[in-house]
Amino acid sequence: MYSCGPTVYDYFHIGNARTFLISDIVRRYLEYKGYAVTLVQNLTDIDDKIINRANERGINTSQLAQKYVDAYFEDSNKLGIRAADVHPRATEHISEIISLIQTLIDKQAAYEIDGDVYYRVNHFAEYGKLSHRKPEDLLAGARVKVDERKEDARDFDLWKKSKASDPWWDSPWGKGRPGWHIECSAMAMKHLGETIDIHAGGHDLLFPHHENEIAQSEVATGKAFARYWMHVAFLQVDGRRMGKSERNFIFVHDALQKYAPEAIRHFLLSAQYRHPLDYNPTSLSESSSAIRRLNNCLDALRPYRDADGDTPDLEEEALNDAEAALLRQSIDTMRHDFESAMDDDFNTAGALGTIFKFAGEVNQFLAATEDQSRLHRDSRQSSDERRNVLSQAYKSLVKVCSILGIYAEVEVAADAHAALTEQLMNLILEVRQDARQREDWETADKIRNQLEQLNVELQDGRTGTTWKIIKGVH
Ligand SMILES: [Zn+2]
Description:
Blueprint: E1 2-3, H1 14-32, E2 40-41, H2 48-57, H3 61-78, H4 94-106, E3 110-113, E4 116-119, H5 135-142, E5 156-161, E6 176-178, H6 180-192, E7 196-202, H7 206-221, E8 226-232, E9 235-237, E10 240-241, H8 252-258, H9 261-268, E11 277-279, H10 283-301, H11 314-343, H12 348-375, H13 384-404, H14 410-437, H15 441-453, E12 456-461, E13 464-469
Helix pairs in contact: 2-3, 4-6, 6-7, 9-10, 10-12, 11-12, 11-13, 12-13, 14-15
């Protein structure tokens, strides 16, 4: 699977995040269904936007690109998007790009003019087959900036001759840099072979980017380039497309300061990917409360997580038997409906619907059976049947939620961190105590001062040293 990744000249916004997230969800779901998935997502690290932004800031393009590559991984990681198996960078594939361009020239599908190389669209009869655009539409689209030297207005750059201060690489056509479209063809074929199963990207890449990727790759290999194309629809803000001119970008970087990653994911998955998704001021707070409801349900189920499957005591079983049978049925229905929704072109909205419907049924079951359990002679224990079905409900719910990434064992992780912090602090205090006993004041003070830098304050008392975190970190 190949997914067109970010052009690293800025932070990515939640419209981009939707595309990256969907690629990850598709991978997770296919893995759940037993497929082995290799996901490749490129990083476009040389491009006009990068060159312009780097010039504005007075730094070189690789410094700028590296800053936003790092930011991409930091934010996507926080958002719970798993890294792809390979994240190829355009600047690390120049020789593959050059040899692909040479192949196209050899096949008369490209031509050079004064250091620039263009793709000859007329050479590929199927051009337009992905976007279903008519030749006259294609011409209208290309009219914006017609290069008089081109044979046809639709022809596009494969290799650009370098201007004075631009970064450049040597090539058979002189110093220059690759065009954007050829980068994806070269990297996709290098890492996934000549035909790939699934190619994903934002809807804005359908034309011309993906149309051009097909034209380049299929002429070069004579084979189909991608078996399935997935285009993730636009994210709108209050009914308007998110865009530079509207100044309505919402960067993931900023959204993560205010909202839990699970809430952002819930929002991004609340429409099937081919449908536009509208963001308004209440979208993320609604998603936040949905995630809270889900977490409450999972919290209530967690105590039953490890219930074993031992034979139910017949006398106790009778107590909750009817309700337990109903919940068991709900589990099966939920799993079935979840898969049907996801099998239907990854309908995440439908999948979320089945999860929340099921959470409601779990809550009802818990309310209905709690009193009965309390009345039971051994009030600390629910009946085996009740515990077993709740354990199963917990595991099933966690399973489907983890495919969508809307649930993380947050509390468990936080507990583990707190315990580790405690142990590490005890160790540090012990080392410092040893230093004090040796009258090694330098080491003792160093530990105190460095901890202070980490907002940890030590208090030496008669009974020993205590510590506390100051200034509200965490
Ligand atoms: Zn691409």
